[in-house]
Write a structure and sequence with these properties.
Helix content: over 70%
Number of domains: 2
Radius of gyration: 21 Å
Shape: globular
CATH topology of the largest domain: Farnesyl Diphosphate Synthase
Strand content: under 5%
CATH architecture of the largest domain: Orthogonal Bundle
Largest sheet: 2 strands, antiparallel
CATH superfamily of the largest domain: Farnesyl Diphosphate Synthase
Structural class: mainly alpha
């Protein structure tokens, strides 16, 4: 079994080897730029890991793993335009460095390049793997659409929120694992189970991210604690607070959310105090554990040696027991 860090290193090295035309420069330079910004390369590494777990040749999984990484960065490029984000991984975003039109068109080419890489799989697996890739890609777009709609809606329910994070975040983890498993020789049953494992784990991971945004150590979390509160983002914690709050507490929450000139520190402190009164952290942690348990139930059902299952369990534990 190859270590996750070794698989991430393989992907990082292979990304550097990707060749794009030099002309027209404003189409391809942004692609090289965003791929050079790094990141953990977790999604493509998971694809390689799944292939390895089922006894496959990791080399045969490199091109589809790169497809996942190129696709993921395509979504980031377009998300940054929609969010009007100035920075990505601490560096200037593509649309800021060039312009929106360049970001849109370069992102379009990245999606196509992702398909070209995915189509390098063995002919016998091409149709089922492209189907997974298609479902994953559509899911991410659906999730992003829901996320944007939620910004202007005041009737978002927790079930809808879970659907959104499943689509926007978790389906890529599940899809990457399923593709890698099929390349590694897994049965359709086991491929479906590892997809469920990845998807449910992805939901749990995002719920933990919601918790850490409020309760994490700012030095370890790696980003501003309370950022979701400051931006009025509809997270599990906020939605659960509105679900449980009494009339006076709802009024207090609404006041903080609608006060345009609120001091950020006071806003974070005020809303966090309401969360504490309502024991929101406990509810969020219970929800997170529910989805983690679903992931582990799927893992237990996979027909793999116990040592391989333990490898996945250790990976999941490492993902969930974190402060950043």
């Amino acid at each position: 079994m190859k270590k996750l860090t070794d698989l991430q290193a393989i992907i990082s090295n292979e990304v550097k080897q990707l060749n794009f035309p030099a002309y027209p420069a404003e189409l391809y330079e942004p692609i090289k730029y965003i791929l050079s910004l790094g990141g953990k390369r977790m999604r493509p590494a998971l694809l390689l890991m799944a292939c390895d777990l089922f006894g496959g040749d990791v080399k045969k999984a490199i091109s589809p793993a790169l497809a996942i990484e190129v696709f993921h960065n395509f979504t980031l490029m377009h998300d940054d335009i929609m969010d009007n984000a100035p920075l990505r991984r601490g560096k200037t975003t593509v649309h800021e460095r060039w312009n929106d039109n360049v970001g849109i068109l370069s992102g379009d080419v990245m999606l196509i390049e992702g398909y070209k890489l995915m189509m390098r799989v063995d002919e016998s697996l091409l149709r089922p793997i492209l189907n997974i890739f298609n479902e994953t890609a559509v899911g991410v777009c659906e999730g992003q659409q829901l996320d944007m709609e939620f910004e202007t809606r005041n009737d978002v329910g927790i079930d809808e929120y879970i659907t959104m994070i499943r689509l926007k975040t978790a389906v890529v983890l599940g899809g990457a694992l399923k593709i890698g498993a099929l390349i590694g020789g897994a049965s359709t049953v086991d491929a479906a189970l590892i997809h469920t494992f990845g998807e449910q784990l992805g939901i749990a991971f995002q719920l933990q991210d919601d918790i850490l945004d409020v309760y994490g150590d700012p030095e370890k979390f790696g980003k501003q604690v309370g950022g979701d509160i400051i931006s009025n983002k509809k997270t599990y914690l906020l939605l659960k607070a509105f679900e449980l709050a009494k009339t006076s507490q709802k009024s207090e929450l609404t006041k903080w959310l609608t006060k345009s000139d609120a001091d950020p520190k006071q806003k974070v402190s005020g809303i966090t105090e309401l969360y504490n009164q309502l024991q929101i952290r406990q509810y969020a942690e219970e929800a997170m554990q529910t989805y983690a348990d679903k992931a582990f139930a799927a893992l237990d059902a996979i027909n793999l040696p116990d040592a391989h299952k333990q490898y996945l369990r250790d990976f999941a534990d490492g993902l969930m027991v974190r402060e950043n």
